[in-house]
Design brief:
With 385 residues, the protein is an all-alpha fold. It is built from 15 helices and two strands.
Length: 385
Amino acid sequence: MAFAIAPVAAVAPNGLAVLLAASGVAVAAFAPRHLRLAHVPPVPKVAIGAILAWALASTLWTIDPLEALGGLVRVIPASFLGLVVLDKCLALDGDVRARLAAWLLAGFWLALGLLAVEMASQAMFGLYGSLFANTIGPIAATESFTNRAKTVLALLLPMTAAIAARRHGGWAGVATIAACVPVFVFGESMAAALALPVAALAALFGRFGGVRAPNLLAVLIGGAVLAAPLLPHLGAMENLGTRRDVTVSIYHRAVIWAFVAERIAEKPVLGWGMHASRDMPGGHSKVTDMAEKIPLHPHNAPLQIWLELGAVGALAAAVLLAWLARKTAGPPGRQAMSVATLVTALMVASLSYGIWQGWWVATLWLLAALAAAMPRDSLGDRTAS
């Protein structure tokens, strides 16, 4: 799993759902004791269970119950298998953690090399003359697939840079980050381009914020989730929404988020129901000839939770994320890595993908499992317990 996640993301990001399923089934088959989830603390189990149970209940009032049930048929098993893999990773001993970290780093460099060659071949031969187009198929060379690949590598970067620094010295960590710059900024992925500065700032906050940083982060993240419906009404966001150049993605997102905030206000407690984003009344109204008010989902996880699951779902999500923020606590190096990983994942989730997309759900579970399995002395904290 550790070696495969980055290369699979590079060549077939939708295959991450298969990787999660295979990893979970393997753990269940060869170490069935982890089906009891004894190593996973109660808070995430209860919060995730509450979100999924409420999503199931929302099929009673959602716009398209069959579509919602179809989504739950995918999300519930994936979440259980994700918990099983997480339980296994939490139970690993130090030697296994070190080997896993080495395999993750090797896979990351392989994937980064593949993406670099693909980007260069696109520049020279065009989208349909590139490496992926000629070896995997034309769809593998499209922006949506390469953007997903860059996003997954961006999420893995704090861990892989920490591993490189731990194993080979600080220069290797810096080189890992530097090698990502041309790959991440080439193309249309705003999330991947923002990942580098966001991760850097978050790492600095985690490294120098001391013991108070996780608690402060928990308050900020939990508060942001609960306040999400108010944020599109801030002056700066409303100003962005008045612009109609939807080729600039943040302008279009500002329009989407303002529309979503209006719909949230209509059903703030129960929400519209799971997958209601796809068929939201007025959502397919045109902003311009090229853009709708809400194309499939809000491109913002907190707003989608509020829109579909209401305040009940938002409260469970806020508790889960605040708990995760507090769990970033540790020695300075590991805390920096953990804070950067969490903040980068939240940044991407707040700009890009729908929360029920199978490959994205799998990505987040695999990321959580790998973060839990990292050596406890990451980034030079060699004396940490």
